[in-house]
């Protein structure tokens, strides 16, 4: 959410940003919020003037009563009574207008960084750099569900009976490899100096509204019936929510945190749920990294964070590339974002395994997360990035370490978490 003062003083910049994001239907909102803001400020001035006048008149009434000028005092009392009636009307009017202002401000997109390429959708995202040689072996790489089936590692049929489409059982060495990857991701980030956390897996609606847009919430979040609780779609939600309404010591910044959680998503929309495999599912597990920092440090942390994900996957013998998200592919709260994509030798193309974003002070403004230093109190910046989301990450490891004889080599970094195993046969 933008600062209303910024919108008031820079309406054309806000409108141009909306156009860059191809959301022209939101252009009228800029003039609407300025108009509402003008009314709110006028009402506040009116209220302050009436209260000041009331104080002055009250003193006059006291003086007149002491002078036994009752009739004059009563006339002034009538004026004070009318002023009080108007003051009583103003506060509800302001509250109504402020709610209308907030509704509109919540859907005006954040100002994107100048470096973000302009484009309508993800088809116009821009490749930044490749890391590792994308190899296509001289033998066929089966579909990932078929690779797993060779090891009796997947049971979607039973999951369909217990939970429905979009769920799965992982079994045996495949389940162990899945867990090994998460354990390694945890230790990888701890070694980078991040503090390990396990957050709540359910959060209140005010936290949901603080960390994401309404459209994202509707398409992603599962609500607990009859309670003000939502299942998290990523641990970023509860990790950022942890600091709601807090003032963090400036000397404690940056906060560098890495969190594990299961994640739950509706996956509503064009993508849908994958019938056979486990690429797009309702439930998965994730190791996330979150940084809360001073505004001037956020871009430096952004570049560090995505590079950690690249380093992580390269340590698992998976070639990756980074893809700069264009304006039309950015969620409304994001300032800048890039995807980390893994090479699929079966499809001979890259697919997303992680996403890194800086949100400026948008989440901090919604949740009132501030810091206090020598120059006063101000909003922090928040960033998040995927270390590992699996089973999607599992697919990348299986395909890139698949051997001609049908076995899968276990990357060296994962072998200690697999009891020393070097291969799955």
Automatic annotation (TrEMBL):
Residue ranges that the Swiss-Prot or TrEMBL entry lists as coiled coil: 40-74
Catalytic activity: tRNA(Ser) + L-serine + ATP = L-seryl-tRNA(Ser) + AMP + diphosphate + H(+); tRNA(Sec) + L-serine + ATP = L-seryl-tRNA(Sec) + AMP + diphosphate + H(+)
This enzyme's EC code(s): 6.1.1.11
All residue ranges annotated as the Aminoacyl-transfer RNA synthetases class-II family profile domain in the record: 143-411
Alphabetical list of SUPFAM superfamilies matching this protein: Class II aaRS and biotin synthetases, tRNA-binding arm
Positions of ATP binding: 265-267, 281-284, 352-355
InterPro entries, per the entry: aa-tRNA-synt_IIb, aa-tRNA-synth_II, aa-tRNA-synth_II/BPL/LPL, Ser-tRNA-ligase_type_1, Ser-tRNA-synth_1_N, SerRS_1_N_sf, tRNA-bd_arm
GO MF annotations, alphabetized: ATP binding; serine-tRNA ligase activity
Keywords: Aminoacyl-tRNA synthetase, ATP-binding, Coiled coil, Cytoplasm, Ligase, Nucleotide-binding, Protein biosynthesis
Localization of this protein: Cytoplasm
GO BP terms, alphabetized: seryl-tRNA aminoacylation
Positions annotated to bind L-serine: 234, 265, 288, 384
Associated pathway: Aminoacyl-tRNA biosynthesis; selenocysteinyl-tRNA(Sec) biosynthesis; L-seryl-tRNA(Sec) from L-serine and tRNA(Sec): step 1/1
Main location: cytoplasm
The protein, known as: Serine--tRNA ligase
